[in-house]
Design a protein that fits this description.
Shape: elongated
CATH architecture of the largest domain: 3-Layer(aba) Sandwich
Order of helices and strands: HEHEHEEHEHEHEHHHEEEHEH
CATH superfamily of the largest domain: P-loop containing nucleotide triphosphate hydrolases
Radius of gyration: 28 Å
Number of domains: 2
CATH topology of the largest domain: Rossmann fold
Helix content: 25-40%
Strand content: 15-25%
């Protein structure tokens, strides 16, 4: 019977190059990051350090996720005799070695190991780990042969793990996209791309990119703006104006929209911005008043005006300016 196990070129590349003190696989979901760990790397790291001083740790979001994401896949490949379940004492036995399985949700449990000296540390879902827990575990790699390893899906560009990976520590990082897994059915890949298209999760879970959520709310519109542009004004709608007060690094902005009375559609009538630096309130209020009058003259009565609630002083002053200009609206 053929017992050959295929791995991807990306997984083979990681085995060749993951020879540093820290080794990480960061990227898309279902791209084979954890599979190569349970198939080869975790057993290999543990066995090559057998008999050496130090403890073996597996950390994860919780004890339950470690059991589900690491221990059970190990058992499926290597069997329950070589890999046991996690006991009530948080210890599993893997290839004859005691392995401490610590959930990062239990910070108190992790603190009990402040004096531990770790020879091998594997971190499942490393990006989701509490920073305090990561820092504590990081400080316990006490030997020249100590190795820390992990995998995870990227989150924001300011994440502490991203900063760590880009620092001058001895670290090897491999990046994965969904398309790096040649064993995933083409139909599954196509459907996942459809399901995440136009969202921040497409960048994170499909392309494996560190990506901030801000500014991506209307990405589908930005990618195909002509589809959403119309010269036909919808009637039987409510006209609303929104104001976002700017600051030192941002502009004031104002937008007028028409909202259908069944609340199933929104049409942007006009938007405008003004520099926040170098302008006084008189100039800003005159800009707003002129904008409102233009919308009323062109499209009809404005029913509502909303503004950033954090700037209550400006809102109160604007209400006075609206009354002075006989505009019957309250912010």
């Amino acid at each position: 019977m053929d017992k050959t196990i295929e791995i991807s070129s990306k997984q083979a590349e990681y085995i060749r190059n993951a020879t540093h003190r820290w080794n990480f696989k960061i990227g898309a979901t279902q791209c084979g990051k954890t599979y190569i760990d349970t198939l080869f790397l975790i057993p290999e790291r543990i066995r090559e350090r057998a008999g050496l001083k130090g403890l073996v740790f597996i950390a994860g979001v919780s004890k339950g996720t470690i059991q589900r994401n690491v221990i059970e896949p190990l058992q499926e490949i290597w069997g329950n005799k070589l890999v046991t379940d996690i006991g009530s004492n948080n210890i599993a036995t893997i290839f004859g070695e005691k392995v401490y399985c610590i959930g990062a949700d239990n910070v108190g449990m992790v603190r009990k190991f402040r004096g531990a000296r770790i020879k091998y540390l594997y971190i499942d879902e490393v990006v989701d780990i509490n920073e305090e827990v990561f820092e504590l575990l990081k400080s316990r790699l006490s030997f020249e042969y100590s190795v820390g390893e992990g995998s995870g899906n990227p989150q924001s560009r300011t994440h502490y793990i991203k900063r760590f990976l880009e620092s001058d520590v001895d670290v090897y990082v491999q990046h994965y996209t969904l398309f790096d897994n040649p064993f995933l059915p083409k139909k599954v890949v196509e459907e996942m791309c459809k399901e995440y298209k136009g969202t921040v999760y497409y960048n994170r879970y499909i392309l494996g990119q560190w990506c901030n959520a801000e500014g991506l709310i209307f990405q589908q519109i930005a990618n195909d703006d002509k589809r959403f542009i119309t010269t036909t004004i919808q009637y039987n709608s409510i006209i609303s104006i929104g104001i976002d007060w700017g600051g030192n690094k941002s502009k004031h902005s104002i937008t007028a929209t028409k909202i259908s009375r069944n609340f199933k559609s929104v049409q942007v009538l006009k938007s405008s911005t003004m520099k926040a630096t170098g302008t006084n309130t008189k100039q800003v209020f005159r800009w707003i008043i002129n904008f409102i009058k233009e919308i009323q003259d062109k499209y009809g009565t404005v029913s509502f005006i909303f503004a950033d609630s954090a700037e209550q002083v400006l809102n109160n002053s604007l209400n006075g300016e609206l009354r002075a200009n006989e505009i019957n609206l309250v912010v």
